[in-house]
TrEMBL record:
AMP binds at K474, G475, P476, D477, T478, G507. The keyword Acetylation does not apply. This is Bifunctional NAD(P)H-hydrate repair enzyme. It comes from Phaeobacter porticola. Catalyzes the dehydration of the S-form of NAD(P)HX at the expense of ADP, which is converted to AMP. Together with NAD(P)HX epimerase, which catalyzes the epimerization of the S- and R-forms, the enzyme allows the repair of both epimers of NAD(P)HX, a damaged form of NAD(P)H that is a result of enzymatic or heat-dependent hydration. Homotetramer. It catalyses: (6R)-NADPHX = (6S)-NADPHX; (6R)-NADHX = (6S)-NADHX; (6S)-NADHX + ADP = AMP + phosphate + NADH + H(+); (6S)-NADPHX + ADP = AMP + phosphate + NADPH + H(+).
Length: 566
């Protein structure tokens, strides 16, 4: 797992490093430029022996400063380098100014305009306009050049753009490409699809082939539009590790303002393969060697999954199967009378109990061996369903609430928040999230016109705090947050891209995975993180053509590959 940083955290780390006197800003800038050049030759090894032509677009801050370093290093390797500057050279910050002057001693810098940029073709384009300092949408010639590069005039540059830190215009906290404020006419206007018009964005789709960032990836590389515009993300070490101290536990504890909330990116593949990384313990699994063989099925927990009525039972069975495969000792489906036969015909290892309403559920839950309940998948929205949710929450069991159990509380989420407890996990997709947290969804979907923009990470953290329990906000960029601010992102992008996971019922299986892991005693955050991670691993291993039923069946092979016991 990798720590994810905000732009402000990155700046704080850099400032702490410089303040220590052990490194200067200029040295960091040099290392950043070297990192970019290294990444270029790793991506295009053929360029090592064949110098190319390159346009370096430098902006008015330190991102531009990195650009001047890259220009100098590539020129030193025989490349033909053209440098454009957007902004006033007299206002460059000190380190960027130093590198500008070093470059200017033997070379030229041209003011950036679309016209000048388009005069000649280049093999490579370095985008060093804005990085972590982006605070408003691109304007003027920066906008014109960025939108030209992203295909406005029909030319596709995306295979030859290397973005330093970020494609310029991308907010590194929210993963949103900042847009101009939409036209204000004093009253709302709508387009033909009934949508309010949005401001212009320089790009919305793939912009760079490669994005080189420093020290740690930022949230914006992994959420919202980030993955579609970054191409691929390479992280280069610039020697800041000792200033990036989590929770201030090590000697030389940094000031409180620098202690970072624990935000991680869940196990990208290379780290998982590295046996030295202790990721397994965070995920709540044990390595085969250390596993206890003493347990029996009741020590592995008993999950209860509530089924919907006649004709709506499949979702609960998917969740139940997920819970059983991932390791619950026993799983029982509780179904209304009318749905008993339908369930009975399709369940074997999973048990079945009739359960017609809140009273029967209360009786069932008197059996304390049911240590986790999952409800929502296929549950339906009939008035009596709410009673089931309340009954489960009052029984104070570990609980996973998904789908209809969330939608049931649309417009009256407070009634749900009052009874939720810390042993619960909510698993909304975007629509369900908006029903429970309409104000947060509105902020999230509002045009992002200033940086740092409100992000899915902010929204999920706020939601978890408000609900008082773990919230897992689904999507290709699944964000998981606990009320105490712990947060992680489970990304299905880049080398973990698995678009075929967007298939009917896959969310039901995810709810089941979380349920099964909670049955095994994982705490809600661990269970949600582990389940989300394994869900994507199952999809990756199975590949295209996947349907929801395949996900639980893929679990044994994934656990075997990861060399862990349930
Ligand atoms: N933080 C670190 O540890 C390091 C940062 N470095 C580089 O420094 C960058 C950050 O530098 P800066 O903080 O100077 O910020 P940027 O270079 O990203 O932005 C420069 C300035 O432009 C202005 N600005 C923001 N949006 C604008 C817009 N749309 N139009 C016009 N002007 C706008 C802001 O005043 C901002 O401070 C990083 O992205 C990275 O490339 C590296 O040199 C090495 C180390
Ligand atoms: N493009 C995508 N790539 C990877 N995973 C995705 C993508 N879109 C959705 N998912 C995942 O698929 C699952 C869909 O869940 P959900 O929306 O509840 O669907 P359903 O109700 O049909 O089960 C979630 O786990 C979500 O994170
Ligand atoms: K950039």
């Amino acid at each position: 797992m990798t720590e994810l940083l905000t732009a402000a955290q990155m700046r704080a780390i850099e400032q702490a490093a410089i303040a220590s006197g052990e490194v200067t800003g200029l040295e960091l800038m040099e290392r950043a430029g070297q990192g970019v050049v290294e990444a270029i030759f790793e991506e295009w090894p053929e360029y090592e022996s064949a110098p190319q032509s390159v346009a370096v677009l430098c902006g008015p801050g330190n991102n531009g400063g990195d650009g001047f370093v890259v220009a100098r290093l590539l020129a030193g390797k025989g490349w033909t380098v053209k440098v454009f500057l957007y902004g006033d050279p007299d206002k460059l910050p000190a380190d960027a100014r130093t590198n500008y002057e070093i470059w200017l001693a033997d070379n030229q810098v041209e003011e950036l305009t679309e016209r000048a940029f388009r005069k000649e073709p280049y093999s490579l384009h370095i985008d060093a306009l804005f990085g972590t300092g982006l605070s408003r949408p691109l304007e003027g010639e920066a906008f014109n050049v960025a939108s030209h590069m992203s295909g406005r005039n029909g030319d596709d540059y995306s295979d030859s753009v290397v973005a330093i830190d970020a494609p310029s215009g991308l907010c590194l906290d929210s993963g949103t490409v900042l847009e101009e404020a939409p036209p204000s006419l004093g009253h709302p206007i709508f387009d033909q699809q009934g949508q309010e018009p949005r401001g212009r964005k320089p790009f919305q789709d793939r912009f760079a082939a490669l994005t080189v960032t420093f020290d740690s990836p930022k949230f914006g590389h992994f959420v919202n539009e980030g993955p579609s515009v970054c191409g691929q993300v390479v992280v280069k070490d610039i020697g800041l590790e000792q200033w990036r101290v989590l929770k201030g536990t090590k000697p030389g504890t940094p000031p409180r303002s620098l202690r970072l909330p624990h935000s991680v990116l869940l196990g990208e593949r290379p780290l998982v393969k590295d046996r030295r990384k202790p990721w397994i313990s965070r995920f709540g699994f044990v390595r085969c060697k250390k596993a206890s063989t003493k347990g029996h099925k009741y020590t592995h927990g008993h999950a209860l999954v509530l089924s919907g009525g006649h004709g709506k039972t499949g979702a609960a069975r998917l969740a139940a199967r997920g819970a059983l495969r991932i390791g619950a000792g026993l799983v029982t489906v509780g179904a209304p009378r009318a749905a008993m036969m339908e369930n009975a015909c399709q369940l074997t290892a999973i048990m079945l109990r009739q359960m017609d309403g809140a009273d029967e559920l209360r009786t069932l839950l008197q059996d304390s061996r049911f240590n986790v309940v999952c409800l929502g998948p296929g549950l339906g929205l009939a008035a009596d369903r709410e009673g089931l949710v309340l009954e489960v929450l009052q029984a104070n069991r570990a609980t996973v609430l998904d789908a209809d159990a969330l939608t049931q509380f649309e417009d009256r989420a407070e009634a749900l928040f009052e009874v939720l407890h810390e042993n619960c996990v909510l698993t909304p997709h975007g629509g369900e999230f908006a029903r429970l947290f309409p104000d947060l969804a509105e902020k999230l979907n509002a045009p992002a016109t200033t940086g740092p923009a409100y992000s899915k990470v902010d929204a999920t953290r706020e939601a978890a705090k408000r609900a008082g329990c773990v919230v897992l906000f689904k999507g290709p960029d699944t964000v998981i947050a606990a009320p105490n601010g712990l947060c992680s992102v489970n990304s299905a992008h880049y080398d973990r891209s698995a678009p075929w996971l967007a298939t009917a019922g896959s969310g039901d299986v995810l709810a089941g995975f979380i349920t099964g892991l909670m049955a095994r005693g994982l705490d809600p955050m661990q269970a949600a993180e582990t389940a989300a991670y394994l869900h994507v691993e199952c999809a990756l291993d199975f590949g295209p053509g996947l349907i929801a039923e395949d996900l639980p069946e893929q679990i044994p092979a994934v656990l075997r590959r990861l060399d862990v016991l349930r």
